[in-house]
Amino acid sequence: MPILITGGRIITATDDYTADIYCEGESITRIEPCIDPATLPAETECIDAGGRLIFPGFIDPHVHIHLPFMGTNACDDYETASMAALAGGTTTLIEMICPGPTDEPMAAFEEWNNKAAPLAAVDYSFHMSVVRFDPLAREQLRQIATERGIPSFKVFLAYKGALDLSDEDLFAMLTMAKELGIIVTAHCENAEMIDAMQQRLLAEGKTGPEWHEPSRPTAVEADGLHHLAAMAELTGAHIYAVHTSCEPAVRAALDARLRGVNIWIEAVLPHLVLDKTYAEQAEFEGAKFVMSPPLRDKRHQAVLWGALAGRTISTIGTDHAPFNFHGQKDMGTDTFTKIPNGIPSIQERPALIYTHGVRTGRIDLHTFVDACSTQAARIFGMYPRKGDIRVGSDADLVIWDPDYKGTLSVKTSHSAIDYNGFEGWPIQGRASSVLVSGEVQARDGEFVGTIGRGRLIRREPTHF
Amino acid sequence: MPILITGGRIITATDDYTADIYCEGESITRIEPCIDPATLPAETECIDAGGRLIFPGFIDPHVHIHLPFMGTNACDDYETASMAALAGGTTTLIEMICPGPTDEPMAAFEEWNNKAAPLAAVDYSFHMSVVRFDPLAREQLRQIATERGIPSFKVFLAYKGALDLSDEDLFAMLTMAKELGIIVTAHCENAEMIDAMQQRLLAEGKTGPEWHEPSRPTAVEADGLHHLAAMAELTGAHIYAVHTSCEPAVRAALDARLRGVNIWIEAVLPHLVLDKTYAEQAEFEGAKFVMSPPLRDKRHQAVLWGALAGRTISTIGTDHAPFNFHGQKDMGTDTFTKIPNGIPSIQERPALIYTHGVRTGRIDLHTFVDACSTQAARIFGMYPRKGDIRVGSDADLVIWDPDYKGTLSVKTSHSAIDYNGFEGWPIQGRASSVLVSGEVQARDGEFVGTIGRGRLIRREPTHF
Amino acid sequence: MPILITGGRIITATDDYTADIYCEGESITRIEPCIDPATLPAETECIDAGGRLIFPGFIDPHVHIHLPFMGTNACDDYETASMAALAGGTTTLIEMICPGPTDEPMAAFEEWNNKAAPLAAVDYSFHMSVVRFDPLAREQLRQIATERGIPSFKVFLAYKGALDLSDEDLFAMLTMAKELGIIVTAHCENAEMIDAMQQRLLAEGKTGPEWHEPSRPTAVEADGLHHLAAMAELTGAHIYAVHTSCEPAVRAALDARLRGVNIWIEAVLPHLVLDKTYAEQAEFEGAKFVMSPPLRDKRHQAVLWGALAGRTISTIGTDHAPFNFHGQKDMGTDTFTKIPNGIPSIQERPALIYTHGVRTGRIDLHTFVDACSTQAARIFGMYPRKGDIRVGSDADLVIWDPDYKGTLSVKTSHSAIDYNGFEGWPIQGRASSVLVSGEVQARDGEFVGTIGRGRLIRREPTHF
Amino acid sequence: MPILITGGRIITATDDYTADIYCEGESITRIEPCIDPATLPAETECIDAGGRLIFPGFIDPHVHIHLPFMGTNACDDYETASMAALAGGTTTLIEMICPGPTDEPMAAFEEWNNKAAPLAAVDYSFHMSVVRFDPLAREQLRQIATERGIPSFKVFLAYKGALDLSDEDLFAMLTMAKELGIIVTAHCENAEMIDAMQQRLLAEGKTGPEWHEPSRPTAVEADGLHHLAAMAELTGAHIYAVHTSCEPAVRAALDARLRGVNIWIEAVLPHLVLDKTYAEQAEFEGAKFVMSPPLRDKRHQAVLWGALAGRTISTIGTDHAPFNFHGQKDMGTDTFTKIPNGIPSIQERPALIYTHGVRTGRIDLHTFVDACSTQAARIFGMYPRKGDIRVGSDADLVIWDPDYKGTLSVKTSHSAIDYNGFEGWPIQGRASSVLVSGEVQARDGEFVGTIGRGRLIRREPTHF
Q1: Which class does domain D57-379 fall in?
Q2: Backbone torsions φ then ψ of C339, nearest 5 degrees
Q3: Which of D190, D230, D248 is nearest residue A193 as measured by Cβ atoms?
Q4: CA-to-CA distance for A443 and A448, rounded, in angstroms?
Q5: What's the ipTM?
Q6: Which of B73, B209, C177, D198 has the most CB atoms around its CB within 10 Å?
Q7: Hey, are the CB atoms on A297 and C299 less than 8 Å from each other?
Q8: pTM of whole model > 0.80?
C-alpha cells in the first residue's frame, strides 16, 4: 500500500527541511514540498507528520541474536529482536555470525541466515567472524564476502584459544581483506592477558561481577587497538574497532589515523550512558551490567561524546546480546567469568541517544542521524539505499515524536529478556511510526508489522 | 540558457552514480538516469559528459584578493581572481576582510564588498576579521553577521600590536560568537613570540627567506592552537583553525575535540604538497614560498593527508594571496620579515589535490569533494545550496576530465601574479567545463564567463 | 656542640646503609660504620638513632611567608614558619619574593630578606619574582641573581594586569635568564582567561568557593604550560613549572622535554592528597581549600604519583601561604575571587608524603628523599651542601621515627594560622630530631632551636 | 699496587669537584682535596690527572659476546671484547645470555659464564634470557636470579617461534619477577608482524639491507612497547625497554609511566648517531648497519637526545654484536633476513656520546655519566659498588682527556670485527687511563691489563 507522509521535518546526516514524502513499492518515490493526494492512488495511506521529525531508519551495526554460549543461547530470536528493534526505530540490523573454532564458515553463514530469514521483520546483514584461516576457510570466506554479499569480517583479539586468530593468520587475513575490499571489524582486547587476570582474580577469591572490569582494564583494550592498528598499517587493510569504551583506546585509534591507517571507531550505547558502578551493585545485580569491554569509569563517557560530536567516532551500535538474569546471567553466580556478556539495548538505543545526546546538546540532530544510521550504511556498503532519505532509497523511515515523555521498562520492551538495564529511566522522544521498505512495522512502541518480511541486504566490497 | 549535461559520473561527498543533469535558471532542476532532450526547451545547451566526472563546484574557504599590505596591494582583483578560480574549477570564494586596526568594521565590509560586486564572476562571501572589539565595533560586527549574512569571524593571534586581539577581547568576542551562532576562524600563531624571534634572527644577520620558518617553528603554531582551544572550551564558541600546517597543531586540535571543544581544522594546498626546502632556495627564489604558517619539514605532509583521509581535517583551502616576485616579494630582499606572505594557488588547488591526493590513493574521490567543496558549504552555512549536486541546489558544477595530462605554468594561470609556485609541475585531471549558477564560465582552463555575474551569498548563523 | 648520631639507617636519594654520623661546627665531618665516642670531644651530644631512618634535611622549594595581599598579610612570620617547618623536618625554605607591579626589585629583595634574617631558624633562599622588566628592573635583577646569590626567577602567567609580564617581556627575560644561567620558575595559568571566567561566574551568581576550580579548569593550566614551554624552546632558557596539578599540564611538559626543552616539574602537597570536593564543602568550609591552581578531580592524583615514581616530576613543595579562616579567608564570603589563596602544609608535607606515598608503595624511600630534598638542592644550586648526607655537607639532618602514629591538628601545628586543612588526618612516621647546620632545632614535633640562627644561602647560577 | 690520582676534576652523576683519589686493593679508599704522597706506601703509582676529567668506569648494560647465530658466532670473545671495552673506558659489561629454545637455563648460564670467566678483563654480569617457562625452567631461573646473583631477565617479543614467549608465559614470568624483585628487560618488537612483513618483502623481490627497516617500522616497536607496558601494569613487574629507537616507542613508555608502570628506557649508541640512510648504502655496504630495532629516520635522534637530557631515557648501551662484513654479514647477500644483526660500538660509545652529546650541548657531563654508568649500576643492583666515585666503591675509574682529537677506525679498534661502522668519524675526548678494581687496564686506547682478571659481579634483587 502506498504511503504519503505529510508535513514532517526531515532530518538527515546533512539536511533539515520540511517536505512531504511518498513511498510506493519498497522505495521512496517522491519528496516534494507539497504532494497533492489527488495525484496518488486512492488506497494511499496518509500519515500526518506535522510537528514530528523524520529520520532515515536507524541501523544497528553490531548485534547478536543467534548466539550459542556455554550450552545455552541468547534469548532473542529474529522475531523478538525485530519487534524490539522496530519499536525503537531501528530498521536494519547487522548481526555477528559467531561460529565455533572448527566450524566451516559457509555452514555458519547458512546457519545464521536460516535463523534470520523466516523470522526477520527488519532488514539485515551480517559480519562474518573469522575464527580459522586455513585454506578451506579462506576460500569459503572469499565466497561469503563476494558472492553472498557479506564484505565485512569480524575478528576477536579477545577470546583466548577459542575464537582469536594467531598474529600470523591475522596478518594473512588482513592482507586478503585489503585485496578484496573487505572491511575488518575487530574486538580489541588481548585474550591472554584477560585470561591470566581472570585466573589471578579468581584465585584471590574475587569472584563477583565487580571484578569483571579489573580483569580487563583500559590498558588491555588500548593494547588491542594499538596492535590491530599496527597490523592495519602494515597490510593496508581497512579496520573498524567495535565498542570502543575508553579514552586510551580512542587515542590509539586517532594516533593510527594520523599515521594514515584507515580506521573507523564504533561506540555502543552502554558505554555512553552507563559506568562501572552499575556492575558493582550488590546481590549479583551487577551481573546485568557485564559486557566486554566492560563499563568504565564515568569520565570516559565525556570523551566518547566529544569524539562523537567531532565525528571522530563514526557510529553508535548496541552490541545487543540478551541473556536472562535468571537462568543465564546466574550461571556466573560463583564466578564472574561465567556470566554471559551483554547489556541489551536494541530497542532503547535511539531514545537514549536522543535523550542523553541530542537533548543535552552533546550532539546535534545531524550527528545523531549520522552515528545511528548514515555512517553504518556508508561504511558497510548499503548507502544510499539505507541511511538516507531520498528518492530511490528504501522507504525505511522513522517518524519521531520529539515531545513524547516516557519511562523505559522490561514491561514495554519486546526483547525476550527478563530484565531491562535501564528500568525506570526517563526518556524524551520516541518513534511514533516506523516504516521498513514502505510498510509501517511499528507504531508508538508497538510492533504492527509482518514477521518474515525482512530481507538479507546484499552488499558490495568498497574498502580497497 | 538551460543546460543539459548527459552521461557524466556524478561524484559528491557521499554519492557516485551516473545520471543526466538539467539546469534551468540558476539551479539544478532535474537529475535523472536519462533525460529526454525532447522534453526540454529548444534552446537548451547540451554537454556530453561521457567519460567525465561531475563534481559540485569547488569552494575555496580561505582567499585574499583585496589585500592592502605595506603600501602595496595583492596583485589580483576580483576579475583576475575569478578567472583563475573558475579556470581551475572553483565556483565560490570566501575572502578574508582585513581592515586596519582602527577601521570601522562596517566600512571595511563595504569596502571589500564594493571591490567584489562589480568584478566577481564567482559567487563569494567573506570572513569578517575582528581587529578591534570596542562597543562600536561590537555593534557593527553583530550587524554584519546577522543582517549582512556574514556569520563567520576571523581572528589573528599572529600579528602583534596590529591585528591581534587582547585575550580579554578574544574571550568577549568568542562569548558573543557563541551567543549569535557565529563560527570563529583563527590564524593560530602567537604574535609576540614571532616578533621576538624575528628581531633576534635579524640581529644575528639572518635575513633571507630561509629564516622565515625558524622565526615561527611548529611550537609557536601549536601554542596558538592550544590557546584558542582553551578559550573555546571556556566560552563554548565554535572555532575553525585555518591553514593548520603541522602534526603538533593537528594533535592540539584533536586533544581539544576529545575534551568536547567544537573545532574544525583547515589545511591549505601549499602545506600539502610543498615543504620548507622550497623557501630555502638560493637567489631569493625562496621568497616565492614565504607564507604563514611557513612551509614545514616534509614529514608533516603525511600527517595532513592522513588527517584528511580520516576526516580529522575537514577542508582544504588555498590562503591565496598573490604578490609579484618582482616589485612586491622583493620588498624583503634585505629582510625576510618584509616579504609579503603568500603562495597563490586559487587556480591550481583542484588539479593538485586530484593529482597528489586522489591519484596517489591518499584520499578517495568523496573525500576530495568533501574537503574541497562540501564541508566548506556545511561549516559556513551555504549547504545544500552549495557543496552538493541535487535538485534545488545552485547549478555550480565542474565537469572533470580525469585523463587530461598537462603542466602548470604562470603562462596558463589567470591570476595577475608574475610567477607560479608550481611552475612545470605535471598534473593529471582538470576541469573541462565549469558552471556557476547555471552558466558555463570556464572551458578547458579558459574563462568564458561574465565578469560581474557573481553574487554575494548571504549566510545564516548555525553555530549555536 | 658536636653531635654524634649512632646506629641510624641513612637514606639518601641514592643510598641506603647504616652508619654513625658525626657533626662538628656546621657540617657533617665523619660518616663511618662505627665511630668510637672516645675519639670525640667530651661535650659531644649523642643521639641514638637505632631503629630510625636518617634523611637529609627536607627542602621546601616553594613557600610564601611575607605575603602582602589586599591590605592584609599571610599570617606567618619567619619565626612561626621556621618552627612549623622544623617541627615537620624541613630545614631549608625557598620563599617567593612577591613585589608589587611598580616596586623596584632590589628594594623588594631587601624587604623580604629583612623580614627573614632576624627571625629565621631554618636556612633560606628566595625565588625573585619578575613583575616588571624595564631597564632599571633588568639591571637590578641581574645584580640580585649574580651578586646576591639568587639565580632563580619566578614569573606569573596568572595575575592579569598586575604581576604578569607581557609576552614581549617574558621573551626578553627568558633570553637574559639563559645568558646568566638562571632558572625561571613559573606559575602557568593564563591570567586573562581566568579573569574573564571569574567575571562570568560572578555575573551568574556563582560566588562560593566551589566555583574557584571551574574558573580555572585544567585547560587553562595546560595552556599556560604549553605557552611557557614554547617560549623556552625559542629562547633556550631552563624552566621549572611550579605546582603542576593535572595530567594535561604534565603531558604538556613531557611533550616539551621530547622536543629538547629543559623543563622541570614541581608538584605540591595539596594536589597529591586533596581533591576538588574539599573546596566544595558547605558553610564556606571550602574556602580553606582554595589555592591556585585549584584542587582537581581526584583522578589527577594518580598521574602525579606515577610521574613522581618515574622521576618525571622532580620535586614536591608546599606552596605554603597561610591565611586565617576567620578574618582573612572570609574576605571572600561573598565572592570566591576575594578568598586569599593557600592551603598551608609547611609542617605537614614530610609526614603526609611519607604516609600517603612511601607507606602505600607509590614511591620508594629514595624517591621520597629525592623529591622532598635532593632535587630542590640540585636544581636550585645548593647541592651537595644541601640535599645529601655526606662529609662536608651542612649538618641538616632528619632523624625519622618510621613507627610513630599520630594525628594532624591545628593544635600541634606551629604555623600561626587558625585552621589545619588536614585536621584529624592520621599519619605514620615523623621527625623525631631535626638538625640545622649541626644543631638540634626540633624534637618530636616541638621547636627547641634558636630563632634568628637561619642563614641566607647564596647560590650560583648553573643553568647555562 | 696502590694508585694515587692527583688533581683531576671528578665528575659523577651528581658532583663536579677537584680532588685526589687513592685506591688500595680493589677499592677507592680516600678522596681528599690533597693527599700527601708521603702518607702512602712507597710502591704507590702516581697518576697526574691535572686538566683531566675523572669519571666512574662506564658500564655497558647491553652487550653480546658469546652469540651463536645460524651456525656461526659473533666474532668477539671476552678477550677482544674486554680489550675494546677498556680501551674506550668501559669497565663493566652486562651480557645477554641467549640460550636456544630448548636449552636449560642453568646450562646456558654455565655456558656463558664459562666463556667469560677465563678471558674477561672487565667486570661483568648477565641478563638471563627467558625463552621457555616450563616448571623446570622456572625453577632454574629462580635459582639463577637469587643464588647466582643474576636478578635481571631478558625477554624477546621479537623472534617468532624461536625465542619469544607466549603471552601466557610472559604474564606468568612477569608475575614471578615481581615476586622475586627481578627486573625484566625486553626487546619490544612483535615477532609475527615482522615475520609476515619479511615474507612479503622477499616475495616482492625486496632482498637488500635497505628493506630491513621497512620490515619492522616504528609502529611494530611501539606496539611491542604498549604490549609489554600493559603486561607490566597488570602484573606490577618492573620493566626495562632495551634499545628504544623512536618517538612512538618513547611516548608509549611515558604513557605507561603516567599510569604508574615502573618502566625504564634504554637507548643504544647506534640510534643516537646513525640513521636509516646508512643501511641504504649501495654495494651491500648497508649490511654493516643492520640491527634491530633498525636505524630510523633521522628525526628520531633529536627525540632520543631530548629524552636523555630530561632523564626520561635512563641509560645508553651499545647492543654490541660483532659480525664480520666478510664471511658473516654476507650470509645475507641474497636476502636481508639472513644478515646477522649488529652495529658494534663497545669501544666507541663513550667517545661518541661525549663528542655528539656533551660537546654539542645536548646533554651535560652529569647526564653523560648518569646514562653511561650510574643508572645502569642503580637499575641493575650494582650501586654504589659501581657507577659512582666514592670511598668504598670499586676502583673503576676513567681518566678522560677532554682535549684529545682523533678519528675512529677499524685499525684502532680492539674488537675482532673486520669493519668499523664509524670509520673515519672524528671524535673529541678519550679515556687516557682506565682502572678496573684498582689496576690500570688501558692507556690512551691501548689495553695494558690482565686477561682473566675480570669478575662476575653478583647482584641482589631490588625490584619489589
Answers
A1: alpha beta
A2: -75, 120
A3: D230
A4: 7
A5: 0.93
A6: C177
A7: yes
A8: yes
